[in-house]
Amino acid sequence: MKLQLALDLVDIPEAKKVVQEVEAYIDIVEIGTPVVINEGLRAVKEIKEAFPHLQVLADLKVMDAAGYEVMKASEAGADIVTILGAAEDATIRGGVEEARRLGKKILVDMISVKNLEERAKEVDAMGVDYICVHTGYDLQAAGKNSFEDFLTIKRVVKNAKTAVAGGIKLASLPEVVAAGPDLVIVGGGITGEADKKAAAAQMQQLIKGA
Ligand SMILES: O=C(CO)[C@H](O)[C@H](O)COP(=O)(O)O
Fold this sequence. Notes:
Blueprint: E1 2-7, H1 12-22, E2 28-31, H2 33-39, H3 42-50, E3 55-62, H4 66-75, E4 80-84, H5 89-102, E5 105-109, H6 116-124, E6 130-134, H7 137-140, H8 147-156, E7 161-165, H9 173-178, E8 183-186, H10 188-191, H11 196-208
Parallel strand pairs: 1-2, 1-8, 2-3, 3-4, 4-5, 5-6, 6-7, 7-8
Helix pairs in contact: 4-5, 6-8
Bound molecules: ribulose-5-phosphate.
């Protein structure tokens, strides 16, 4: 089980500072969608250059032209690129093909997918590396989380690794870990803490002890 730190509300210097604090406890750094919007793929490039030992995920949430966008993120140094599960099959297949060519990985984000079980099976058959359930900020604000959705994909996904994201905090982590994801994605549960290092260390302990 791996821990991914999601960076959403930072600029590049702040991102570097946070990663420096917690790098010993995480496996993957996510350059979040808002960071890419604000800073471009330069954020991916600078973080990969500064922390080459960590995997970097570019959270582009690709919806079309995945071959091209996976190529551009890969050129910037991304190891993993996200594509939306709601995208066309041709888009997901194009992204997977490009990722294979470049030795990169695809994480499919199932945010807003209504027919989760059926779509997860379809996406799983397309050769993606990770399938991730994700409660976005707008539904987190309405009190939702990803736990039930995770149990659904855990049951039906046979090939890809499974991942879970959306509002995971130290208090909710034991329940998440017990459900057995391959990847746990945490943003505010680390970046929103006064002592980020302690939060990441405790999370790593729970994850690696599982
Ligand atoms: O992709 C995202 C938002 O669209 C976030 O990176 C993801 O939800 C993890 O952050 P948090 O733990 O703060 O919810």
